[in-house]
Amino acid sequence: MSSAREPILILAPMAGITDWPFRLLCKRQGADELVTEMISAMGLIQAPRSSRTYQQLLETQPEETPIYAQVFGHEPGYLADAASRLSDMDAFSGIDLNAGCPAPKVTGSGSGSSLMKDIRLSETILRALRRATSKRLSVKFRLGWDDDSRNALDYARMCEAAGAEQICVHARTRMQQYAGKADWGAVGEIKQAVNIPVILNGDIFTPQDAKNALLKTGADGLAMGRGALGNPWLFGRIKRVLAGEEDSPPTAREIIDTALTHLALMARFKGEERAVIEMRKHLSWYLRGSRGAAQARTRINTAGSMEELADILKGQLLVHENEGIR
């Protein structure tokens, strides 16, 4: 990919977080690409088509484009079948293989970042996926299982040879989880070793982080996960700073209005009762760093209705009117 192109900004997939209401808000604020929450290949194939869980995982909105379906698993047959089924859905522009999730319930079955311990199996899986879809195939992985087995360079070369058209590297090992500092330099080495787009993931919380990471690595793009929590504006802010403009964080009113929109979208998606529960974490993230946030979080976590949550948010706006919340 030519370095003259603007970097791709991606909302990184996060289980239980990046459903369509949140993805939609990030898209509206400048995210170039979206990825679904992790979809179990075996679960997708074995679950009845009427399964509400999988209906929700696969639900998208027309505005979400391009969006890629992320699958996880360790059995080539199930993964290929899942990729084929997902590729038949017009909503998805491609398939993304998760080889980076560090969660024990995922790695314990040999999936997620456990795949990095078996490059041959990973290659078999990728070649099966490549045969199963004509759409874009990408892979997300880490630097390795631990510091004694950092094999991301070999893994990246394997991905390219097996037919992957884009890779996203979380610049930590599996054993690090999300602790310590992301090793951006290691991603820069991977960028020099392959000819397909390389996306950097890890420790991008501000526009300056994005600028520094791109300069250090030469990456073709950035994937933001934790940095986007309660902060869908991050994508647009990065674009403005990279274009030489001044950074412009959201105002208190913009934050509260977006939180209220998110609440309404979630109610539309999962119903009001479930939305109240699901939105507790999101609303706490929106208010993070603001005056009175701790007290507001306590009230949010005990609120029992949409109206209560909306009143709490509006109360925060009154407290912070004409102030930046961050």
The number of helices is 14
Mean pLDDT: 94
Number of strands: 9
Question: CATH H level of the largest domain: which superfamily?
Answer: Aldolase class I
The amount of beta strand, in percent, is: 5-15%
Structure report:
- The protein has helices spanning 20-28, 41-46, 52-58, 76-87, 104-107, 119-132, 152-161, 184-193, 207-217, 234-242, 252-270, 272-287, 293-302, 306-320; strands at 8-11, 33-35, 39-40, 67-72, 94-99, 136-142, 166-170, 198-201, 221-224.
- The chain folds into two domains: 8-242, Aldolase class I (TIM Barrel); 252-320, Putative flavin oxidoreducatase, domain 2 (Non-ribosomal Peptide Synthetase Peptidyl Carrier Protein, Chain A), CATH 1.10.1200.80.
- It is globular.
- Strand 4 (67-72), helix 4 (76-87) and strand 5 (94-99) form a beta-alpha-beta unit.
- With 326 residues, the chain is an alpha/beta fold.
- The model has no long low-confidence stretch (mean pLDDT 94).
- Helix 7 runs parallel beside helix 8 and helix 12 packs parallel to helix 14.
List the helices and strands and how they pair.
Layout: E1 8-11, H1 20-28, E2 33-35, E3 39-40, H2 41-46, H3 52-58, E4 67-72, H4 76-87, E5 94-99, H5 104-107, H6 119-132, E6 136-142, H7 152-161, E7 166-170, H8 184-193, E8 198-201, H9 207-217, E9 221-224, H10 234-242, H11 252-270, H12 272-287, H13 293-302, H14 306-320
Parallel strand pairs: 1-2, 1-9, 2-4, 3-4, 4-5, 5-6, 6-7, 7-8, 8-9
Helix pairs in contact: 1-11, 4-6, 7-8, 9-10, 11-12, 11-14, 12-13, 12-14, 13-14
